[in-house]
């Protein structure tokens, strides 16, 4: 089994606050792992009457995440999709919040697919911008130059790139 990638609790609370504060629209997560970050997103989704759609490609992680959601009694609040988010993102409109924590080489592809389908004011967050700064620096430069978003790297957890889609 590949290692589990879990966010620290302070990042989870940060995600939950921002997701709960986001405008009406879909909440998505790219990279479920064991479902720890999904739990925080589900808190926001439940509070705002929405659901979380989360994507994972590895079967062993899907099993762990499914068990996590069952134990937490949030199975009805989370749609866990076994598949590469890049195969689905073109068909998801009205995204209000997206958390990206997947293999770093897919960050740019996912960003490029999410932002056009995000509502004005929508929040896009990518994990590991500080912990994987060397690997993610080209991605960060592209996002920081993107006139469709306001963005900043927040030094919480492993470093969160936070973007808000602006009217363009």
| Beta fraction | 25-35%
Along the chain, the helix and strand elements come as HEHEHEEHEHEE
Q: Determine the fraction of residues in helical runs and give it as a percent range.
A: 25-40%
Shape: globular
- Our measurement of the CA-to-CA distance between the termini, rounded to an integer number of angstroms, reads 43 Å
Q: What kind of sheet is the major sheet?
A: 7 strands, mixed
Strand order of the largest sheet: 3-2-1-4-5-7-6
Structural class by secondary-structure content: alpha/beta
**Rounded Rg:** 14 Å
User: What is the number of E strands?
Assistant: 7
Please work out how many helical segments DSSP would assign.
5
Average pLDDT taken over every residue? 96
**Residue windows where pLDDT falls under 50 for at least 5 positions:** none
In words, what does this structure look like?
The structure is a single chain. This protein has helices spanning 9-21, 36-47, 59-71, 107-114, 133-145; strands at 26-30, 52-56, 78-82, 95-100, 118-126, 149-154, 160-165. A seven-stranded mixed sheet has the order 3-2-1-4-5-7-6, with helices on both faces. Strand 1 (26-30), helix 2 and strand 2 (52-56) form a beta-alpha-beta unit. The protein is an alpha/beta fold. The chain is built from five helices and seven strands. The termini are far apart. The chain is globular, with a radius of gyration of 14 Å.
